[in-house]
Write a structure and sequence with these properties.
Chain B: This is AP-2 complex subunit alpha-2. Chain B: One of its GO terms (biological process) is clathrin-dependent endocytosis. The complex is a heterodimer of chains A (148) and B (939). Helices cover 49% and strands 25% of the residues of chain A. Chain A starts with a strand and ends with a helix. Chain B is of the alpha+beta class and 939 residues long. The relative contact order of chain B is 0.04. Classes of the chains: A alpha+beta (148), B alpha+beta (939).
């Protein structure tokens, strides 16, 4: 299972964090700081996987934003890399060519989309249509209720 | 997609975020945040009741502040209030705040649980989804108590919507992970397994994750999932790339689900033949697809395809039973080793590490040695180089050890600091393990000290000293080599330590050469003295007093040194005391007393290598176990030839760090007694004892595993969700030694851990087993080792049973497996010419001496594999003996304590009929019978 997912910028600003295992605030901060340092220090052509503590880290950079997942020893690195890509595709489809600013200003939406896609550290649905349909319905619900 | 109502629902939030982004400095940002926090606090505390919208907005702001890295200590109550709003967006934000910010031990859980209960009962799928998400995010025990009974019902109810089923499956999985005891198994489990057949692939995907985790802990209960998973997988891999519509990802059909199904299958041993055939087809299809031209140039296509491929290879390695698939997997990984994608090279190196431990593919892995060495030299990414080091370590055996050690040493000169220590440990272990020639070992370790002295830990240099002391054939060489190495103007302090110790013990062996006379040796060491730290100086002082005994002619010189103020009045207590005592000793003691007190060090008793222990500590126990298993020497297995001295395999204790070589402060050195023999205090297996508690019946799958060990000596004998049992064994004539490794796979201690060996009444007189009890506590993640000494008294048929009992988290565990000690282990191969063979064959023509079996092939009929198996079985494989080149003949002698039994065998394959005829002829009927049984099961 995935232990956590982080989105952070090239400047080391955390944009999103999702933890799938109970972790204390203090420990979270320490891990985020440590891992960001490791990942930001890596050069472009390097491989997307690394061993970190007792976990495997899979990361990929999209424009100014790093998407970084920590998974367990038995988990599949390549499918995690594509999981990141699918999430980026979902964001892209929803926001219409997504950029870092979209995620900053609409961080709650970024969370909702992630939650439709992953739950408890495992993939809930890999179909782009299903995930987006769920989000669309929620938006619709929001508008209807807004009007009421 | 409708234009998103980004933020215009919450203008205040957007403004606040802009403000923060416009802050010029960290101070300005903190100021702005504090202002906002004060504002929100006053709003929350104010007299005026807030409307839902404002609450939502402020809660959202708090979330944003939290994401910036600030602590949030209020607002939880308001978020909980939002949960009971009937406006969807307010409810949603409330749940988001709680799932991000609420820790599992919050006092609010009861209130939250109430809201969740209402939403679960609402039958509104969107609300139910939110509630399930919240449970999965927080996942506390209290939540498990409240909902673990409810969620399975939601999951298997006929009228539950697919999306809710998916959430329910993963939610239950989360609760099971944190509180397995609270999730009751029941009728629902069988219905969950049938979700693997569900039409909705999203449901299957979520359910597979749940089933995999449940099956790891309750394999029996979820056994039926194997055939369902195989047929599902088969439908996916054979589908056209468009069949699965939205579940096709860049032309790869359902890659996530495929990976999960392959993962689920790794919870089980290879399935029954019927299902197995279908699975093998799937795996072959996956391997074939890797060779097809890509359907898209996009990296996503190849990543998804290869994700499935790597998982399939993991399954093949896990089963470790299909030589063809293993070799194909190895070839595929070999291709990836040279791929232009760094990611694939990394993964191929990683995956090959585990392949190296399989008997069938070890040789195939070894053929890639040059590529791996090249990776070590040319990869630009340190994490890839690290993998290359791991793989070299895993593929090392006696045949390539000199090359691998040399390459690692040369890499060490430029290696990244972060991995130097690990490489040093690995080199030290390999050099020791595969040393045929101990001069090579000594050279290697001295090179290690020269190249990376700072990274050579105490364990490593203690070890070289132990080995030199225990092996008298290398002592002279060691003394000469350290003497030469010390000539360098600047040498590492570790070298001074090793040099000091070795010359102190064995300097006499080179003193005959005028170039290394006692006085020169002394001056050489003493020239380094003042540059060294206190512990090293203390060690050198001991060397000096040893010199006084070895070389009476330098006694006055040494006494002068000891007498000097810088020694006798040294500020360091330890140095001063040694100087005083040694000086006194050299003055008052007679030559005889000196010779007794300063006698050569006795051999060190053998124990587990402290270096290996250190590497395990560095890498975590599980990883090294695998590596350790892989390092067994196959050349010995395969040739069945005489084994080299076993001294290299296990190891020795370490002297204490302050290394009081003489033990002058305490008792005089103990006389060099032999290391305690395991027989002396060994616990005889008492088969007649009826006090033993009830022994569990043999574990399922134990038969299969047993058969796998007939032709090999190492590997995993048993594995369930708690315990892994690995074996390493070696046999020589009628004696053998088996190392049993018990690995605790959990994070919890095993208590009262008691493995017992049981021989039946029939077996007991024929097979002698001796072992010592192991420590009754096995820490979580730890591994303990037990050594069994084996003596074959006379030929035997049955196998001993290993029963293991222990307590795990309050429950009593009882496992029995057959221990693969079979008659053929005591085979010594015999080479003979065709003429001799047939002459003996005729001599054994008495009907009782021959046993024949005609049987159907259970595995693909591959000549090379068959040869390897016959050799693994222990007999010699005689080439050009049988007039029909397709037949195999073998010969060997079974050694027992009482007698030796010559054995001849002939295996005639019939490819068309897919049958074999196996004929055994020996001088003893029971032996023919047993060997025929054992060998027939292998093809």
């Amino acid at each position: 299972m995935m232990r956590f997912m982080l989105l952070f910028s090239r400047q080391g600003k955390l944009r999103l964090q999702k933890w799938y295992l109970a972790t204390s605030d203090k420990e979270r901060k320490k891990m985020v700081r440590e891992l960001m340092q490791v990942v930001l220090a890596r050069k472009p052509k390097m491989c997307s996987f690394l061993e970190w503590r007792d976990l495997k880290v899979v990361y990929k950079r999209y424009a100014s934003l790093y998407f970084c997942c920590a998974i367990e020893g038995q988990d599949n690195e390549l499918i995690t890399l594509e999981l990141i890509h699918r999430y980026v595709e979902l964001l892209d489809k929803y926001f219409g060519s997504v950029c870092e600013l979209d995620i900053i200003f609409n961080f709650e939406k970024a969370y909702f989309i992630l939650d439709e896609f992953l739950m408890g550290g495992d993939v809930q649905d890999t179909s782009k249509k299903s995930v987006l349909k769920a989000i669309e319905q929620a938006d619709l619900l929001q508008e209807e209720m807004g009007l009421a | 997609m409708p234009a998103v109502s980004k933020g215009d629902g919450m203008r205040g939030l957007a403004v606040f975020i802009s403000d923060i982004r416009n802050c010029k400095s960290k101070e300005a940002e903190i100021k702005r945040i504090n202002k906002e926090l004060a504002n929100i606090r006053s709003k929350f505390k104010g007299d005026k009741a807030l409307d839902g919208y404002s609450k939502k907005k402020y809660v959202c702001k708090l979330l944003f502040i939290f994401l910036l890295g600030h602590d949030i200590d209020f607002g939880h109550m308001e978020a909980v209030n939002l949960l009971s709003s009937n406006r969807y967006t307010e409810k949603q934000i409330g749940y988001l705040f709680i799932s991000v910010l609420v820790n599992s031990n919050s006092e609010l859980i009861r209130l939250i649980n109430n809201a969740i209960k209402n939403d679960l009962a609402s039958r509104n799928p969107t609300f139910m989804g939110l509630a399930l998400h919240c449970i999965a995010s927080v996942g506390s025990r209290e939540m498990a108590e409240a909902f673990a009974g409810e969620i399975p019902k939601v999951l298997v109810a006929g009228d539950t919507m697919d999306s809710v089923k998916q959430s329910a499956a993963l939610c239950l999985l989360r609760l099971y992970r944190t509180s397995p005891d609270l999730v009751p198994m029941g009728d629902w489990t069988s219905r969950v397994v049938h979700l693997l057949n569900d039409q909705h692939l999203g449901v299957v995907t979520a359910a597979t994750s749940l089933i995999t985790t449940l099956a790891q802990k309750n394999p029996e209960e979820f056994k039926t999932s194997v055939s369902l998973a195989v047929s599902r997988l088969s439908r996916i891999v054979t589908s056209a790339s468009t069949d699965l519509q939205d579940y096709t990802y860049y032309f790869v059909p359902a890659p996530w689900l495929s990976v999960k199904l392959l993962r689920l299958l790794q919870c089980y041993p290879p399935p029954d033949p019927a299902v197995r055939g279908r699975l093998t087809e799937c795996l072959e299809t996956i391997l074939n697809k890797a060779q097809e031209p890509p359907k898209s140039k996009k990296v996503q296509h190849s990543n998804a395809k290869n994700a499935v491929l790597f998982e399939a290879i993991s399954l093949i390695i896990h089963h470790d039973s299909e030589p063809n698939l293993l070799v194909r997997a190895c070839n595929q990984l070999g291709q990836f080793l040279q791929h232009r994608e760094t990611n694939l090279r990394y993964l191929a190196l990683e995956s090959m590490c585990t392949l190296a431990s399989s008997e069938f593919s070890h040789e195939a892995v070894k053929t890639h040695i040059e590529t791996v060495i090249n990776a070590l030299k040319t990869e630009r990414d340190v994490s890839v180089r690290q993998r290359a080091v791991d793989l070299l370590y895993a593929m090392c055996d006696r045949s390539n050890a000199p090359q691998i050690v040399a390459e690692m040493l040369s890499y060490l000169e430029t290696a990244d600091y972060s991995i130097r220590e690990e490489i040093v440990l690995k080199v030290a272990i390999l050099a020791e393990k595969y040393a045929v020639d101990y001069t090579w070992y000594v050279d290697t370790i001295l090179n290690l000290i020269r190249i990376a002295g700072d990274y050579v830990s105490e364990e490593v240099w203690y070890r070289v000293i132990q080995i030199v002391i225990n092996r008298d054939d290398v002592q002279g060489y060691a003394a000469k080599t350290v003497f030469e190495a010390l000539q360098a103007p600047a040498c590492h302090e570790n070298l001074v330590k090793v040099g000091g110790y070795i010359l102190g013990e064995f300097g006499n062996l080179i003193a005959g050469d005028p170039r290394s006379s006692p006085l020169i040796q002394f001056h050489l060491l003493h020239s380094k003295f003042h540059l060294c730290s206190v512990p090293t100086r203390a060690l050198l002082l001991s060397t000096y007093i040893k010199f006084v005994n070895l070389f009476p002619e330098v006694k006055p010189t040494i006494q002068d040194v000891l007498r000097s103020d810088s020694q006798l009045r040294n500020a360091d207590v330890e140095l001063q005391q040694r100087a005083v005592e040694y000086l006194r000793l050299s003055t008052v003691a007679s030559t005889d007393i000196l010779a007794t007190v300063l006698e050569e060090m006795p051999p060190f008793p053998e124990r587990e290598s402290s270096i290996l222990a250190k590497l395990k500590k560095k890498k975590g126990p599980s990883t090294v176990t695998d590596l350790e298993d892989t390092k067994r020497d196959r050349s010995v297995d395969v040739n069945g030839g005489p084994e080299p001295a076993p001294a290299s395999t296990s190891a020795v204790s370490t002297p204490s760090p302050s290394a009081d070589l003489l033990g002058l402060g305490a008792a005089p050195p103990a006389p060099a007694g032999p290391p305690p023999s395991s027989g002396g205090s060994g616990l005889l297996v008492d088969v007649f004892s009826d006090s033993a508690s009830v022994v569990a019946p043999l574990a399922p799958g134990s038969e299969d595993n047993f058969a796998r060990f007939v032709c090999k000596n190492n590997g995993v004998l048993f594995e369930n969700q708690l315990l892994q049992i690995g074996l390493k064994s070696e046999f020589r004539q009628n004696l053998g030694r088996m190392f049993i490794f018990y690995g605790n796979k959990t994070s919890t201690q095993f208590l009262n851990f008691t493995p017992t060996l049981i021989c039946s009444d029939d077996l007991q007189p024929n097979l002698n087993l001796q072992t010592k009890p192991v420590d009754p506590t096995v820490e979580g993640g730890a591994q303990v080792q037990q050594v069994v000494n084996i003596e074959c008294v006379s030929d035997f048929t049955e196998a001993p049973v290993l029963n293991i009992q222990f307590r795990y988290g309050g429950t009593f565990q009882n496992v029995s497996v057959q221990l693969p000690i079979t008659l053929n282990k005591f085979f010594q191969p015999t080479e003979m010419a065709s003429q001799d063979f047939f002459q003996r064959w005729k001599q054994l023509s008495n009907p009782q001496q021959e046993v024949q079996n005609i049987f159907k092939a259970k595995h693909p009929m591959d000549t090379e594999v068959t040869k390897a198996k016959i050799i693994g079985f222990g007999s010699a494989l005689l080439e050009e003996v049988d007039p029909n080149p397709a037949n195999f003949v073998g010969a060997g002698i079974i050694h027992t304590k009482t007698t030796q039994i010559g054995c001849l065998l002939r295996l005639e394959p019939n490819l068309q009929a897919q049958m074999y005829r196996l004929t055994l002829r020996t001088s003893k009927e029971a032996v023919s019978q047993r060997l025929c049984e054992l060998l027939s099961a292998q093809f």
